[in-house]
């Protein structure tokens, strides 16, 4: 008679399926491991991550909660639950989860960017800027961090700073139509005729890159 695979072997097989992006197969392996040991924190966190990849965010949250209950000292399940809450726009819950994750492992710089996004969603712009700056200190070549930093600066009534951040974002990623759009709108709103030509050029590039919201601005102010 063949031996049934162990809990550890099932978790390992599930993680191998995760590596191949076979999320459903991975969940099956994790479920089998959890039948043996319902408190296997690694299996619970990995199952939640697979559900997250399938965009089943509401289903993922209680699985991550169970992973936290099984191993509250690991930052991973806190961070992952924060990500699921962020996707569901449960911004306060996301910030709370990210706060715990940073306490448990302050060296995980992805936490700062994601918490910044949640704070941006709460319109807590100054705190969001602090987190985006921490993320950029760890790695200054992050176009999306600069893009969202620019959004936070606009919310904080700092159009000059926002234009600088948006320009940095575009320099790192010239395909972000939303960044060109926001830069063009900010130029024209904050500086008027002095920046109209450059603002219109930004808006036209945004439209070329598929950001269709630029079309109305171009028709109203650039033609």
UniProtKB/TrEMBL annotation:
Gene3D superfamilies: Tetratricopeptide repeat domain (1.25.40.10). Keywords: Repeat, TPR repeat. TPR repeats lie at residues 7-40, 75-108, 109-142. InterPro entries: TPR-like_helical_dom_sf, TPR_rpt, Ycf3. It comes from Algoriphagus ratkowskyi. This is Tetratricopeptide repeat protein.
